[in-house]
Structures are given as C-alpha cells and as structure tokens.
Amino acid sequence: MSKATLKKFLTDLSLSREMQRKFKDDPKAVATEHGLSTDEADLVQSGDLDSLRSYLGDDVAGAQVQVDYD
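Above: the chain's sequence. Below: its structure in token form.
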C-alpha cells in the first residue's frame, strides 16, 4: 500500500484502545481491514520499531508509537 496508509494506521492504533484490543486478538485482520499490505502487516506485527522507522524513512524521524494492550 502506501507509507501514508501505514502512518495513519499506526497513529490510529496508538490512539484507539478498541483498535488495540482488536489488534491484539487478530493483528493481520485489523491491518488488512485498514488497507495495509501483507508485508506492512507483518512489519507492524513484528513490533520492530527500528524496521518500521527504516521503512517509513524521514516521515517518522523521532516518532514514538505506544500500544497499551491492557
């Protein structure tokens, strides 16, 4: 898909506790539902922030993503 879609997904995920709960239960389904490619879904599910930042490049320099699964 696009880097913009992934950025929006990560923003929405970090802000929505409901989305976080759904993502915890079925990360692939939530990622696909929000338009991420299989590779992007795998990248998000891996939790590898360095790889996410590398993939997104300067678009997220210094950005932080926090997901609370409680």
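The chain has one domain: 3-52.
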